[in-house]
Records
---
Amino acid sequence: MLSSELVILVSIGYVGLLYAIAWWGDKRARDGRSWVRNPTVYTLSIAVYCTSWTFYGAVGTAARNGLEYLTIYLGPTVIFLGWWFLLRKMLRISKAHRITSIADFISSRYGKSTQLSVLVTLIAVIGTTPYIALQLKAIATSYTVLTVWDYGMTQPVAETISVFSDSGFWAAVGLALFGILFGTRFIDADEHHEGMVAAIAFESLVKMFALLAVGIFVCFVMYDGIDHLFSQALNTPDTAKLLQLPEDGSARWMTLMMLSMAAILCLPRQFQVIIVENVDERHLPTASWAFPLYLLGMNLFVLPIALAGLGALPAWSDPDFFVISVPLFEGQSLLALLAYVGGLSASTSMVIVATIALSTMVCNDLIVPALLRIRPFRMTERDDLTGLLIFIRRASIVVVVFLGFAYYRSAGASDALAEIGLISFAATAQFIPIMIGGLYWKGGTKTGAQVGLVVGFLIWTYTLLLPSLADSGWMNPALILNGAFGHPWLRPESLFGLSDFEPLTHALIWSMSLNTAFYVLISLFTSPSALERIQATLFVDAFSRKGQDTVIWRSSASVDDLYELVERFLGRERAFHSFRDFGWEKDTPWRGKGEANADMIAFTERLLAGSIGAASARVMVSSVAKGEMVSLEEVLEILEETSHVIEYSQRLEQKSAELEKAAAELRAANDRLKELDRLKDEFLTMVSHEFRTPLTSIRSFSEILVDTPTLDHERAEHFLSIIVRESERLTRLIDDHLDLARLEAGHSDWRAIDVDPRTVLDESVDAVKGLLDRKGVALTTDLAAQTVMLHVDRDRLTQVFINLLSNAAKFSDPEYPSVSVRGEAMDGGYLVSITDNGRGIAPNELEIIFDKFSRGGKYADDKPKPSGSGLGLAIAKHVVEHCQGKIWAESPPGKGATFRVFIPGHVFAPSTAS
Amino acid sequence: MTPPRRLTERAFVLVLAAFFAWIPPLVGVFSLDGQIFGLPILFVYFFAGWAVLIALCAILTRSLRKVAQSERP
């Protein structure tokens, strides 16, 4: 037993030390030489997770349920080992959006919804109240144990004390004061409370040191080492069973693991220290292993202390306070005092952080939105709001602390510490579906989140809170035993007939599954607003995006308007620094009547979001930016319109390209027509000329014959023969012409039969033999043995070959004329090549020699040889093409000309045809 | 430097290992009579496993931290 004066003195001294540390931390931060900005302090501040529930309650749990107490620490370890996946993303998002609390986080994700942030805040406050009560209870009870209990006691001391002599009351007062001093010294744009972080990091060291000291004392002073302690415990059946898992404990084990995993993410105070108070993302990797290491250290001696307490202390002693009572019963008052200080530090750190976190939420997400809605209050028109905000926060801290105190005085005094804590955990775990869903699933909507949260919270209230209140005698236990309306299906602890599980697991199964189900289903059947869609994308794709400006503002506020708005919420100094830095960085004016650009309005919104939450910041900024911001629907509409315009102009472009193409085609057609017209004129000229030449000679010789009766017989005969020859030529010309005209019009008779091209060639060669001999042309014929049957008009083909042969004879070298004929079967057809050794054909003439009257299109200095009609090749081309064949000329310079005719053979073979 | 994807996969396996090691049925498997160095088997299982996982996480985090820093804008 220790004297109460000493204990009170130590307590006051300890809290005074905390004040000093916090004051010093704040001072260093203001001087820019922060002591807090390092990973070690960050890790220690996260250790606020270990409250008096850990310090006292874990030993109590271990004494009752064995190793089950570990689940509460293994869950957070799993989350921290997986920091890369979840915590890192939450941290990145929160930094980008200047998130100030978990309510802010959730409401930001779902379109900065005010309703949702109010809902989250209410649940957080209701869920945290029992937890704060737990801390106050721990402080009060540990004080009682320390000052009343003694070695010789035979039964517990139970005393009812008035409010003012209750040490819990004074603890509440002291903690509220601390929160007011260090949680709300000023309204910050980024919600960092360096002094508070310094104090709780120090407290984490104290509580760990105290617990380790008690543990080492128990293991190595009371017993001869830890193995001795365990072997003693194994000798007693009651304690031996604590060293193994309880039978049928799987469901509860699983529940506790899940709950603790959810708690480290969702508890407002954990969100505060892990996310909001984080000053540098690089501290998280260190905390990822250092925080689990801290938890391991805190838990190492929990079971040994519990076993020692069970072994050495009388059966009536409360296992929740073994940490103090064991040293006390061993006569180690100083150690007990140290343990008390450790417990005090665990409790105070939790209450401090929780109240600051909750007061931020209550202020930003509950009171400010409400004030904004109350028109007579004219919040948007007031001048300096920093004072008001600070007042709201301080009032919230007092309210939150004393809510906890009220719960402790009235209801929570009877339960074990761990059970109270678990009720809190279960309430905040309701945030998990909408949080995790919001981080990884873009489809989650505001309506879905609201309904899911409300359903989960109502089930929590019905299945967990009501039974707990009934236990404390606040309400009629009949409801718990018989269910609402006396219906057994509505019994809170076996809802819908599910009675196989203990109350906590049962409550969690129903609340979490229905919460998730409603969230998912309603999200699937509601459509998100534009802002929700944008926020969802920003949250889910946090790592793949760079831009943070989530809202497009139509600029209509002056820079000074924005400046004054920020000044009202953040105070002169902070507004000045923020705007000046922004102006310098972006190189834009940061004071004056000039119109603010969209960037600056977005910056203002973010700045305000850091102090009054995203939802309220939007309302405030839109009150100043008079043209109100462009609604997102409008933006999307503009986008849609733009895309329509783009699509339309693309279609126009396509059309104009088509038109251009058509115009080009028309131009080409026109050119072709002009060319044809020219050709027609040329043709007429040529035809007249061709007809005129023989006619002229016929006429002149006829005139001579008529005019000269004295002409001798011989000469007259000669003239007559010329007339006949010219007439024949004229006839031939006209025949050829008619022939060609018929061919061109497709009117000529075709008598197609199967022929062997070799016989046709032989006949043709025979036909021109006389001509060739007369000119002394050397003829070489090379007809391959292999052949194909052609289905053609035999006479026409003969005509073609004769024409080509006589041309070849005509144009071959005048001195040593030679012509070669070659025939071969190839590619399913027959190829005939007729080559002369003349000068060849000029390359530019190769194509046009097959035109009418092109005649002898050889080299420019060639003398025209007007003996032919000039239609031969044109006719040949028509005939060959009629047979689906091809005719072309080749003329390598200096090697004469080669005319080639290729005619495809027909399928039916020669021998089988007849 | 190990590619980020591989590191991420390793980190993921670490989390899964921790989670499944600490929930039923695996915890039940180690709920045995008998001692290691005079300590109950289950007690040793939890604390030794805890320490090993923390050590692995610390090693892995050294590499992940580099990745995280290189990807920062």
---
Amino acid sequence: MAGEQGLSADSKAGLSLVAAPFAYAIVLLALPIGAIILFSFWTQDFITIDTTFTLDNYREALGGQIYRTLLGRSVIIALSVTVVTVVLAFPIAYFVSFHVKPSQKSIWLFLITIPFWTSYLIRVFLWKVILGFNGVVNSGLMGLGIIDEPVTFILYNANAVVITLAHAFAPFAILPIFVALEKIDRSLLEASQDLGETRIRTFFRVTLPLAMPGVVGATLIVFIPTIGDYVTPELVGGPSGTMIATMIQTQFLRLNNAPLGAALAILAMASVTAISLAFIWLNRRWLR
Amino acid sequence: MNPLRIYAIAYLIFLYAPILLLPVFAFNDGQIIAFPLQGFSTRWFAELWTLSALHDAVGNSLMIAVCSAIFATVLGICAARAGARHKWPLKGPMLSFIMLPLVLPEIIVAVSLLIVFVQVLGLGLSNWTIIAAHTLICMPFSIAILNGAFGNLDPSMEEAAMDLGETRWGAFRKVTLPLVVPGIISSLLISFTISLDEFIIAFFLSGANPTMPVYIWGMLRFPAQLPAVMALGTILVTLSICLLVIAEYFRRRGLARAGLKDTGGFL
């Protein structure tokens, strides 16, 4: 950082204000992440930590069939959740931005965000009630005579995890897309139509490209946290919907193997980061 | 009717389905959470009064949520004010780093703090370890809300106060602070709501005394306790909707005071 003498009064005032929150984030975020990285190169035997540097945890995490399956499945589920959530969210964001009167926009956004703030655990549990064997969906479909016996492909598997997470992350996807759509200069759309484009072609050639930053933001803000979700796979996932967080929890709290748990957490983070960076890079190339 | 509007309404039904089902099962006079319903009953609410372990957990959660909300908001005020009024080298990276917990998977925050508290510092787990972690994850939300409140305040108002003889702090307290109070209240309420509802970090970092979500998690494993969970959930949803309506009211008042147009949403 620049020397103290080189800083203007404005810089000093800014730095002294931001110092407390920044230091807090360093101590409770950067240092712990540093510690977890360090731990992943150590080993643990019940309670004693062996601090010899080793790659054993990574060898085990990448070599063990169960860890590989769980990591791969977590990535695939997170990707599916992201695609489903963003695709379902876009029309809502578009509707609120283009078809709702300006005075009513904030009430729509408020309605969309309310369910997000209410008890996460109980919300996820209720999806079990909705999707279950005697659940709301099955009773409803049987009552209407559409199916004769309960369908089972919607609970205790990856589908249930995707549906439940798509519900949980809906506002995270809607808001960034909405903000991007709000920024679009409406006269550009008129210009495009005046120049003879149809409404559909205007959407694909003007609206969508201009909304892409919001879509990218939505994608990342859904994809990154989803991979580490613990509650949803535990409650509605069943054996075929278990994700990596369950294994991380098991290593830390049940098997007392924090270093292996740390290595799994870091591998999960590394996969998410790699995929996110690749996605951003592709987007830059494609948008140019 | 516009097909988009029909889709929007269907989407809202999808969003609200779980919440609308809560009271249905909470007032249902049956042990099993499924249709058909068994008739009206308030006995599950009465049962909540008998669970003393739940009362302790709620007490813990309230204490944690109040402390986390206050700490996160104080830190958030510093960051939002610095971001709105000053420029310094590395401003962008520093502020983005503070916002990082917003996108980080919570389990990563949970396990890394667990390692630091237990293995590195040798501290016992307690309500304070949860408060420390909740402050961290509430801070970005607080900053996002307060950015709206501090964002377009005209710096010349404070300068005018200082020209008229106020100190820097006096100008802040008498001019800026009253204008951002609605934002601060909104930030406190949102942080409180987040902390009260947070499960995974509390699950990893709670010591002998569980928080309310950790206690609910335990209840979910016992079918006999599920109807009581539905009753508890109904109360929580009602309370959090009230809190959110109040928070939204203050957020909008804050925006109006700062002379801003509402751009919607908390995030």
